[in-house]
């Protein structure tokens, strides 16, 4: 057996599987794709030879949403086993079916070049205060590229970056934004391409160390998870990190932010990386609850039971993804919300894409907004 797979079986506790099937019963992919079963893959990892596992196309179908990990009575960390399997599969030339012809992966690999000339600061307008040096860094991530790559979906993920800086400025923070920042590498890592993930990580870590910042703030949950969990694990990175919802929640508790009223109904999507991966459930809800006159209706499956937005790491988007997305949008709509509040740029892209699908009826169409944008637009500026 390949040593990395046997180590992953041990570390993920996969050998404890009792074949109860709770993982498959709760999995959003298995709900629509009956050929996919985490229970079967766990048992294949334990009992079959490695090649059989590594060549199984289903290893790329998992959204790594961690819902099955929450349900597993044996405490098996299925997504850790999945990641280890993908890293080994890449080594023998196996890979996922990349969505959009692999455009996102190509862009990420282009970003591994240290000599790349980027124009990633053009969105910062005169109303936003940023600095070349200081203690706090705002990590922008791939937002400057998403709106161009997915212009046909008509999303504006950069609004969340502008809103994050607006909120930080309101709190008296002028964040550093790095002109030579790169993609955090999240999607390459989860797609099994460790070599290029490492190049991006080492570039970012080097830039950040040279900048001298002491704290990094993220609006993207995937970037946040990558810097909080994966950079420390693989590269010993140890600078303090925070998600913008944590900053907002603290600022509200400390009465540094006062909000205008909003007399409508909203619901909220817990992003997998922010929720189940990092346990941040209360902070976004604190922010929503602080809005005067708002009515917040939870979806039936919320917090650690929330359903993923249907695509992970730009891989394996299919009719099954659309079914997951449309079902989740319907669940949001059933709360009678006027607005579907999100907290991840990928959720914004995938859900809005699904709403343009020919199968999307009015029961699955709902206006979306990023939480950080929603809050930034409601700040009482007179409180400065
Ligand atoms: S829920 Fe856990 S114990 Fe049950 S089949 Fe899945 S991995 Fe095995
Ligand atoms: S992590 Fe999510 S998508 Fe993957 S097997 Fe578990 S429940 Fe299914
Ligand atoms: S849901 Fe739409 S935007 Fe997301 S990967 Fe699929 S096709 Fe692309």
From TrEMBL:
One Pfam family name from the record? Fer4_8
Keyword Iron in record: yes
Q: Which GO terms describe its cellular component?
A: plasma membrane
What protein name is recorded for this chain? 4Fe-4S ferredoxin-type domain-containing protein
Boundaries of every 4Fe-4S ferredoxin-type domain copy: 7-37
The family database entries (PANTHER family) matched by this protein are listed as: IRON-SULFUR-BINDING OXIDOREDUCTASE FADF-RELATED, IRON-SULFUR-BINDING OXIDOREDUCTASE FADF-RELATED-RELATED
For this UniProt record, give its keywords in alphabetical order, as a comma-separated list: 4Fe-4S, Iron, Iron-sulfur, Metal-binding, Oxidoreductase
InterPro entries per UniProt: 4Fe4S_Fe-S-bd, 4Fe4S_Fe_S_CS, Cys_rich_dom, HdrC_iron-sulfur_subunit, Helical_ferredxn
Question: Which organism is this protein's natural source?
Answer: candidate division WOR_3 bacterium SM23_42
Q: Does the keyword Iron apply?
A: yes
MF-aspect GO terms: 4 iron, 4 sulfur cluster binding; metal ion binding; oxidoreductase activity
| SUPFAM superfamilies tied to this protein | alpha-helical ferredoxin
């Amino acid at each position: 057996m390949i040593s990395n797979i046997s180590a992953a079986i041990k570390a993920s506790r996969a050998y404890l599987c009792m074949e109860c099937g709770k993982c498959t019963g709760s999995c959003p992919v298995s709900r629509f794709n009956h050929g996919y079963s985490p229970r079967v893959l766990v048992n294949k990892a334990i009992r079959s030879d490695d090649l059989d596992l590594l060549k199984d196309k289903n290893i790329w179908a998992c959204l790594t949403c961690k819902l099955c990990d929450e349900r597993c009575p044996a405490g098996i960390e299925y997504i850790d086993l999945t990641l280890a399997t993908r890293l080994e599969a890449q080594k023998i030339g196996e890979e996922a079916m990349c969505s959009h012809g692999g455009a996102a992966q190509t862009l990420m690999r282009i970003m591994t070049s240290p000599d790349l000339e980027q124009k990633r600061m053009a969105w910062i307008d005169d109303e936003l205060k940023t600095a070349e040096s200081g203690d706090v860094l705002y990590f922008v991530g791939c937002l400057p590229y998403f709106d161009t790559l997915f212009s046909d979906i008509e999303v504006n993920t950069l609004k969340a970056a502008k809103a994050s800086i607006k909120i930080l400025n309101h709190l008296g923070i002028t964040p550093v934004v790095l002109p030579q920042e790169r993609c955090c590498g999240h999607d390459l890592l989860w797609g099994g391409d460790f070599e290029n993930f490492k190049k991006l990580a080492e570039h970012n870590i080097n830039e950040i160390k040279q900048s001298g910042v002491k704290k990094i703030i993220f609006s993207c949950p995937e970037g946040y998870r990558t810097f909080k969990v994966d950079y420390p694990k693989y590269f010993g990175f140890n600078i303090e990190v925070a998600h913008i919802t944590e900053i907002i929640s603290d600022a509200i508790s400390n009465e540094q932010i006062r909000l205008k009223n909003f007399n409508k109904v909203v619901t909220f999507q817990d992003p997998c990386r922010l929720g189940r991966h990092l346990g941040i459930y209360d902070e976004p809800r604190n922010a929503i609850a602080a809005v005067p006159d708002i009515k917040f209706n939870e979806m039936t499956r919320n917090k650690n039971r929330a359903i993923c937005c249907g695509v992970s790491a730009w891989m394996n988007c299919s009719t099954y993804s659309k079914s997951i997305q449309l079902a989740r949008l319907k669940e949001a709509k059933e709360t009678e919300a006027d607005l579907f509040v999100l907290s991840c740029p990928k959720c914004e892209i995938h859900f809005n894409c699904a709403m343009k699908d020919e199968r999307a009826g009015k029961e699955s169409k709902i206006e979306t907004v990023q939480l950080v944008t929603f809050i930034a637009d409601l700040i009482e500026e007179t409180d400065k």
